[in-house]
Amino acid sequence: MIPAVFYAIPFFVLLVVVEALSYRFLPDDEERGYELRDTVTSMSMGAGSQVIGLPWKAVAVVAYAAAYTLAPWHLSPASGATWLVLFLADDLAYYAFHRAHHRVRVLWASHVVHHSSVRFNLSTALRQSWTPMTSLPFWLPLALLGVPPWMILLQQSVSLIYQFFLHTERVGKLWRPVEYVFNTPSHHRVHHASNSTYLDRNYGGILIVWDRLFRSFVPEGEPVVYGLTKNIDTYNPMRVAFHEFAAAWRDMRRTARWRDKAGYLFGPPGWAPKAGA
What we know:
Layout lengths: L3 H4 L1 H17 L10 H35 L9 H24 L1 H7 L24 H9 L4 H16 L11 H6 L3 H7 L17 H5 L23 H18 L3 H9 L11
Helix pairs in contact: 3-6, 4-5, 4-7, 5-11, 11-12
Main location: membrane
Subcellular location: Endomembrane system
Membrane topology: Multi-pass membrane protein
């Protein structure tokens, strides 16, 4: 099954071009805009993620179908209530997936790709991981709830398409009720920041209410500095894709204690054993 987001790719590329041209004709000194090598890298990462992601979707469909057969009931696609349950459950699953991928280093090694640009524009949305296998456990419960697998894949695509439009500096803050309920470019700029005030905040997909509920929300205030706390300074797609896996492996090899090896792998990014422990 080809995910719906695949068909949106030509429109994504067109909108990247339109946004890039907007910086040429309507420049803003406070916005980072585009840089050719950075954009090419982002698009290369996006293309690679699609090549790897398509066969992986087949594996995910099989897993969802197996879980769906074990569900005690099957929700009807003809019911509006099913779609509402799916929307909320998918968005909560995305929040859990996203938060875990910032707090567990082996998961962060996959997700860090998306945060590796020091710029923030629509092309950044295309800078995706080449190791999508870490996502499956977070959506399996939806199939166990009785949601048909094709509906899960469709809603995942809807969420990704929505999130594409969050990656821009060209849109300021929106109407307050919208900012309160939905994830917006302002909220997502905070998420991509390396400022200490903003680190590990605003994990939401379509909704921002989960961040408010679980106290991970921070509004945009001080100017955002994009990228990582330690930027990798490379445009090489292979290094972008796998640099954190390599760094975690080096850290694990440095210690003989299995407790410390586990910490480097499953602890939060930046974890290190305490001196003298």
